[in-house]
Amino acid sequence: MRTSWSTKHVFPKRKIRSSRLTHRQRGPPRPEPLSFGASPRDTLLDQNRLDQHNSYSHHPSQTHRRGNTTPRKALEVVLTPEVEEVLGIEWLGAIASAKWDDRSGALDSMRRTLERGETTLGDPEAVFKAGAYMLAKCLPDRVLPVYLSAIELGEHLVTVYAAKHEIDVSTVSKYADMMLPAIITRTSDRNARTIEATQRVILALAKSPCIGCRGVMSHILVTVANNKDYAAIKGRLQLLELMIEVLINL
């Protein structure tokens, strides 16, 4: 008797599993990207998510390497003919040099010249503006020796030179308002030497009659651009605590 064989007995059909995942395996659906016609509430939520993402991104153009997320803007001081005449080609070329030791050396040279009381530089107010121009170029510098030389020059300009030559208080306040934001930003630095030097200079400016405690506090109490920048907030709180401790006894 002849037996008939079928292919389904020889090659049994496999049960093929579906590659599609169920809703439980996939998880909840992802939110759709917002369109131009999104409601104001959705737009606000999307902006909050963007702010949270940006608070963890450290782009070198917006933050310095110590973790502060507050951008530091360049100080705006115009190079007038009187300032150019005081500084000369040598100092102007030094503060624009790509070598940090040239920039630091120019700042130290300017400070030592003022400390010696030389009057050959020109009119005292023009000399003060020339020093402020050098500070505008070098205070935002990321190299520590350049920054330290800059704040030492700034301290001498405001606390000693301006008072000695009786420079107009409005002129001193104007340039101090441009210098202080760049100095206060460094209170969030992780370098202990930078923090100590910055706090010392800010205290000296607060004691100065040309600026005073009120002029300094108006910059310290400015709202931090990023409320998640805990380093900047902590640095300002420590500065306020130090100012209360030191200035309350005066």
How would you explain this protein's 3D organization?
The longest helix is centred in the middle third of the chain and has 21 residues. About 18% of the residues have low confidence. The protein contains 11 helices and no strands. The N and C termini lie far apart (122 Å). By secondary structure, it is mainly α. It has a domain of 167 residues: Leucine-rich Repeat Variant, CATH 1.25.10.10.
Name the CATH superfamily classification of the domain at 81-247. Answer: Leucine-rich Repeat Variant
Q: Portion of residues in helices?
A: 55-70%
Question: How many DSSP helices?
Answer: 11
Mean of all residue-level pLDDT scores: 75
Strand percentage lies at under 5%
Distance between the termini: 122 Å
CATH uppermost class of the domain at 81-247? Mainly Alpha
* Low-pLDDT stretches: 31-74
What pattern of helices and strands is seen along the backbone? Answer: HHHHHHHHHHH
Instruction: Name the shape in a single word.
Output: globular
CATH architecture of the domain at 81-247: Alpha Horseshoe
Structural class call reads mainly alpha
How many strand units? 0
Radius of gyration, in Å, reads 31 Å
Tell me about the biggest sheet? Answer: none
Oligomer: single chain
Kindly identify the CATH topology of the domain at 81-247: Leucine-rich Repeat Variant
Short synopsis of the structure:
This protein has 250 residues and is an all-alpha fold.
